[in-house]
Design goal:
21 strands, elongated, six-stranded antiparallel sheet, mainly beta, 2 helices
C-alpha cells in the first residue's frame, strides 16, 4: 500500500506508473512471449544462492554453445545500503536555540537582560541529533527539563505537495486552509516535512505539538569590570544515522562496502524496503557480463538462471539472463544471450 500523496504523475502512461512502482521495490516490468506483462524482482534468486538454486536451462558446448565472450567491467561492490521510505529534506540534522520569548513563559516575554539575570532558553533538537555540552563565554548554563508545547504556523505550498515545519512535530492537531484545499496532510518520518494529497498553490495554518528543552544561562553582574557586556552561549550536536519506521539498513556479510542511500516515498513498508535493498546489494556483487550465442532454443526469459558447461573455460558456471534475442539467417536459427556471471572477488 502506498500512502496518500506519494504517487504523482503528469503526462504519463499507465505503463510509466506501473514501471515506477515496480522499480521502487527493486523490480522490473517486461513482456512475455505471449504479449502479457509481468513484474518480477531484478534478481529473482539472490546472487549468493545461484550456486545451489535449481536452474532453468543447461547449455553445453557439445549441443548448444556456438560462441562465448566476456566483458571485464569494473564494478563498485556494495553489501550494505540504507533504504528510507521518504525523501530527505536535505539537512543533515536539526537544532535550534532561542530565547524563550513567550509572554506566559519563564522570561515573561523579556528579550533584554542584565548582569546577574537568569536567561531561559528554548532548544529544539531533531531525533537524529545528539546534543553536546553547551559552551558559554562567561557564566554557566544548565538543563532545566523539557516540555511538550503547542505551535501554530502557516505553511506555503508552491506548485508542490510538500512544505516544511519550523520545528520537529510529534503530530499535527489541526489544519485550516486559506482558500484552495490540497487535501489531508501527512507528517513524514523526518518530523518536519508535511505532505498534501495534491500539488498546488495554497496556504494552510497548522497547529502541532513539539518537544522543547529548557536551558537556563546565568551571567555574572560584571565581566572585565563592565556591567554592560556581550554574552554568548553555543549549542552544537552530532548527527548519526536515524533508524525508525522510515528507514532500515540492508546488509549482506560484513557490510564493509556501503552503497549510496536510497530514498523513495513509495517504499512504505519494511518488506518493500528489504526488496529494494536486496536488489541493490545483488547488483553490487562481483558480476561479470557474458555474451553467449547458442543454437535456437525457445523459453529463455530475462531473470532466469542458466548453467553453462564451457569447455573453453574448462569449467561450468552459472549466470542470470539479462537479455534474449533470436536471429534467423535462412534456415539457421540462433539465440543470443546476455548474462551476468558471479565471480568471487579477489581479496
Amino acid at each position: 500500500m502506498i500512502p496518500p500523496g506519494r504517487l504523482e504523475f503528469h503526462d504519463a502512461t499507465p505503463l510509466d506508473v506501473v514501471k515506477t512502482i515496480a522499480e521502487a521495490a527493486g523490480g522490473k516490468i517486461e513482456s512475455t512471449p505471449e504479449g502479457r506483462l509481468q513484474v518480477r524482482h531484478r534478481f529473482p534468486v539472490a546472487v549468493p544462492d545461484w550456486s545451489t538454486a535449481i536452474v532453468d536451462h543447461v547449455l553445453t558446448d557439445e549441443s548448444d554453445n556456438l560462441s562465448c565472450r566476456e566483458s571485464h567491467t569494473l564494478r563498485t561492490r556494495v553489501n550494505k545500503v540504507l533504504v528510507r521510505g521518504y525523501l530527505p529534506t536535505g539537512s543533515t540534522g536539526f537544532l535550534t536555540a532561542e530565547v524563550d520569548g513567550r509572554v506566559d513563559g519563564p522570561n515573561a516575554g523579556r528579550t533584554t537582560f542584565y548582569g546577574g539575570d537568569a536567561v531561559h532558553l528554548m532548544i529544539h533538537v531533531g531525533d537524529d541529533v545528539t546534543l553536546l555540552d553547551p559552551l558559554v563565554s562567561s557564566g554557566v548554563v544548565w538543563l532545566d527539563g523539557q516540555e511538550e508545547i503547542t505551535l501554530t504556523e502557516d505553511l506555503v505550498f508552491s506548485l508542490a505537495t510538500t512544505a516544511t515545519l519550523s520545528k520537529p512535530a510529534l503530530g499535527i492537531d489541526s489544519e485550516l486552509w486559506f482558500g484552495l484545499n490540497l487535501g489531508p496532510l501527512t507528517l513524514e518520518s523526518d518530523q518536519r516535512t508535511v505532505t498534501a494529497r495534491f500539488p498546488g498553490v495554497a496556504i494552510v495554518r497548522v497547529t502541532y505539538r513539539s518537544i522543547a528543552q529548557h536551558w537556563i544561562a546565568w551571567v555574572p553582574e560584571t565581566v572585565a569590570g563592565h556591567d554592560a557586556f556581550p554574552f554568548q552561549v553555543r549549542f552544537a550536536g552530532t548527527t548519526g544515522t536515524r533508524l525508525n519506521s522510515g528507514e532500515i539498513f540492508c546488509q549482506r556479510g560484513d557490510g564493509a562496502f556501503r552503497g549510496p542511500d536510497i530514498s523513495d516515498p513509495l517504499l512504505a513498508t519494511d518488506d518493500t524496503k528489504r526488496s529494494r535493498g536486496r536488489a541493490e546489494i545483488d547488483a553490487g556483487e562481483s558480476l561479470q557480463e557474458v555474451f553467449l550465442t547458442c543454437l535456437h532454443r525457445p523459453g529463455f526469459m530475462p531473470g532466469q538462471l542458466v548453467e553453462v558447461h564451457d569447455a573453453l573455460m574448462g569449467q561450468s558456471w552459472r549466470g542470470k539472463i539479462t537479455s534474449v534475442s533470436h536471429t534467423a539467417q535462412g534456415s539457421k536459427l540462433t539465440t543470443s544471450l546476455e548474462l551476468l556471471r558471479h565471480v568471487q572477488p579477489i581479496v
